[in-house]
Write a structure and sequence with these properties.
GO terms for molecular function: tRNA-uridine aminocarboxypropyltransferase activity. InterPro entries: DTW (IPR005636), DTWD2/TAPT (IPR039262). By secondary structure, the chain is an alpha/beta fold. Helix content is about 30%, strand content about 15%. The chain has one domain. It contains 6 helices and 6 strands.
């Protein structure tokens, strides 16, 4: 009898052996909207299984997260979000060679905008934006707007711009296959899963 995998939560299409291990030195904080913890379409959890320095924190509107504040974090916190005062990611990295704590808003784009608008402490952080944004392959949610990337795609693009195109491609190749396994899991049938787990 097929059993539910306690790690990925899938019954028919466990993908655990296919998750690539990405040798990234980037530090990510996924500031997660409370609703995301209840969504099976969340991709932040996949990033946390690929990259070693990933912290998942729950966003609270009135309470700043200590891990995201300059005075209480060993790394420099910087918000990854396109705004009028954001700078290109590569420019930031060139001007701040010490380790940064890259804060990614893990939510729908509509929720992410509200998180920023409702949290003055987020607005006060320095901000960066991605430069060469490709089309998203994420189609699991409705009302996806052109140019918007999911959390995994944002992190992969950051790896591409700051570290390694090969590692970024490994993340996206896995994600492309994951989307097929996810749809098959929803339908209650299994697809072949070939292990691609590797350390790049």
């Amino acid at each position: 009898m097929t059993q539910l995998c306690i790690k990925c939560g899938f019954i028919h299409n466990c993908y655990c052996e296919a998750i690539p291990t990405i040798a990234s030195d980037l530090c990510f904080t996924l500031l997660t909207h409370p609703n995301e913890f209840q969504r099976d379409t969340n991709t932040g959890k996949l990033v946390a299984r690929m990259v070693k320095q990933v912290n998942i924190r729950e966003w609270q509107r009135k309470q700043p997260d200590p891990y995201c504040l300059p005075e209480s974090c060993a790394f420099t916190p910087v918000l990854v979000f396109p705004t009028q005062d954001s700078v290109p990611l590569t420019q930031w990295q060139a001007q701040h060679p010490s380790t940064s704590n890259f804060i990614v808003l893990d939510a729908t784009w509509q929720e992410a905008k509200k998180m920023l608008n409702r949290s003055q402490w987020l607005q006060d952080l320095p901000k960066v934006h991605l430069e060469a944004v490709q089309s998203s392959q994420y189609q699991l949610r409705r009302n996806q707007q052109a140019g918007n990337l999911c959390t995994l795609e944002v992190c992969a693009q950051m790896v591409r711009e700051l570290e390694s195109g090969d590692d970024a491609n490994a993340m996206l190749t896995f994600f492309e296959q994951y989307l097929q396994w996810f749809q098959a899991e929803r339908s209650g049938h299994a697809l072949p899963i070939c292990s691609q787990k590797s350390t790049l």
